């Protein structure tokens, strides 16, 4: 399980009563909360360890820094040491750093800088990079008809770099240019499942190394009252992207397109918020690596299945959830809200738009628990049910 997920589990543990056994020390505006971590997920195995979140607030009580060193024992990849660092500044500016080292295979280094109000609010600026090895990645074969019995495992060794620069046309509309580089190589995984390279060697992207360079233009319309913890408004994102795999001797060019609409419907008191998300994706071209195509399953869509359970060139997905406020309390020197979130996700992937069929939609109902420190932090734990047994996901953000 990723380090971000553990921070979300921290929030859930506190809500469930773990705060009663936490040792809280305070000096100046700093709070330290040792919390045990016990968790399990379908792909990532069982975890047992200790998280040491450190929350630092400014004189006004606003969260300034969040740091979380941790030591975790995982049933698949062994002992993991990790450190998470988040810095929050006025105007929504954020700096993020994550580093982790695991006894078996897995490594992670992540840096990200985000400033949604760059140069006195005239521009949007984001850049970052990462290196990681994920030893529990799964692939079942391409298409909506892939079967659970074909499950394989691989280590995704990736290097990523990206930047995005946006210009605000008005207070709610942004046009942006972005570029990304993604270098991927599939290696043997950490489980006893068959290696993806042996079972699906004829699938694009499985063998050899891929270096993807992408150029994107995007449109953003956003009336939400907060980028991280919104309670009202609407967001529309559309992009067109041109990509090339530099490792492929033929240098094939393919394009990707996406339209996503998110709408929040709050009650008058905002103690209940209905959130609806619709997503359409399309990939046009040949020799597109499978990991560059659309996927369903994971923490952000079709949450009853594991990450990337269904993969194909195109995608249609719809999700709804009701975020219900249940409590507000002071936690580690900051005010925290807690929510229940019953949800329903549905969608399908397909290779051709003429193949879209009502009978091929997968549906996963579920329930989420959220801990929120406004305006910058969301911790969540979601359980989604599916015909393959369901899945549990956690993170430091809303799913949409």
Question: What's the structural blueprint in terms of helices and strands?
Answer:
Layout: H1 3-16, E1 25-27, E2 30-32, E3 35-41, E4 45-51, E5 54-57, E6 63-74, E7 78-88, E8 94-102, E9 107-117, H2 118-121, E10 123-139, E11 152-168, E12 173-187, H3 196-199, E13 209-222, E14 233-245, E15 253-266, E16 272-284, E17 294-296, E18 310-312, E19 314-331, E20 334-350, E21 362-373, E22 377-384, E23 391-395
Antiparallel strand pairs: 1-2, 2-5, 3-4, 4-6, 5-6, 6-7, 7-8, 8-9, 9-10, 10-11, 11-12, 12-13, 13-14, 14-15, 15-16, 16-19, 17-18, 19-20, 20-21, 21-22, 22-23
Residue share in β-strands: over 45%
Shape: globular
**Strand count, sense and closure of the main sheet?**
21 strands, antiparallel
The share of residues in helices is under 10%
Q: Which fold name fills CATH's third level, the topology?
A: Porin
Tell me the name of the CATH class.
Answer: Mainly Beta
Mean pLDDT: 88
Strand element count? 23
CATH-defined superfamily: membrane protein fhac: a member of the omp85/tpsb transporter family
What is the CA–CA distance across the termini? 20 Å
What is the SS-derived class? mainly beta
CATH-level-2 architecture:
Beta Barrel
Rg result: 21 Å
In N-to-C order, the SSE pattern is HEEEEEEEEEHEEEHEEEEEEEEEEE
Q: How many domains, as an integer? A: 1
Number of helical segments with 4 or more residues: 3
Taking pLDDT < 50 over at least 5 consecutive residues as the criterion, the unreliable ranges are 1-28
């Amino acid at each position: 399980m990723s380090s971000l997920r553990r921070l979300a589990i921290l929030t859930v543990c506190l809500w469930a009563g773990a705060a009663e056994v936490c040792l809280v020390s305070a000096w100046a505006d700093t709070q330290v909360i040792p919390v045990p971590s016990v968790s399990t997920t379908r792909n990532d195995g069982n975890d047992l360890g200790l998280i040491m979140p450190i929350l630092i607030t400014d004189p006004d009580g606003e969260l300034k820094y969040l740091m979380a060193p941790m030591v975790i024992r995982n049933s698949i990849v062994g002992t993991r040491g990790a450190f998470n660092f988040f810095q929050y500044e006025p105007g929504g500016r954020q700096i993020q750093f994550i580093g982790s080292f695991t006894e078996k295979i897995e490594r992670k280094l992540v840096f990200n800088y985000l400033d949604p109000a760059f140069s006195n609010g005239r521009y949007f600026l984001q850049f970052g990079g990462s290196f990681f090895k994920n030893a529990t990645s799964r692939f079942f074969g391409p298409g909506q008809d892939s079967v659970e019995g074909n499950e394989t495992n691989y280590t995704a060794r990736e290097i990523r770099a990206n930047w995005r620069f946006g210009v605000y046309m008005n207070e709610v509309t942004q046009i942006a240019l972005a570029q990304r580089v993604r270098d991927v190589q599939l290696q043997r995984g950490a489980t006893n499942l068959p290696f993806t390279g042996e079972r699906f060697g004829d699938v694009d992207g499985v063998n050899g190394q891929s270096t993807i360079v992408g150029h994107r233009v995007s449109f953003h319309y956003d009336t939400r009252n907060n980028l991280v913890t919104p309670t009202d408004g609407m967001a529309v994102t559309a992009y067109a992207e041109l990509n090339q795999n530099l490792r492929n001797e033929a240098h094939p060019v393919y394009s990707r397109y996406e339209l996503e609409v998110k709408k929040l419907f709050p009650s008058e008191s905002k103690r209940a918020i209905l959130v609806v998300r619709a997503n359409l994706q399309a990939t046009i071209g040949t020799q597109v690596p499978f990991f560059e195509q659309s996927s369903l399953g994971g923490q952000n869509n079709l949450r009853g299945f594991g990450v990337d359970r269904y993969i194909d060139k195109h995608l249609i997905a719809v999700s709804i959830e009701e975020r219900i406020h249940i409590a507000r309390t002071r936690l580690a020197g900051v005010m925290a809200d807690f929510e229940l979130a019953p949800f329903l996700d549905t969608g399908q992937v397909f290779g051709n738009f003429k193949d879209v069929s009502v009978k091929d939609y997968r549906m996963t109902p579920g329930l989420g628990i959220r801990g929120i420190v406004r305006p910058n932090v969301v911790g969540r734990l979601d359980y989604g049910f599916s015909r393959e047994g369901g899945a549990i996901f956690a993170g430091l953000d809303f799913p949409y």
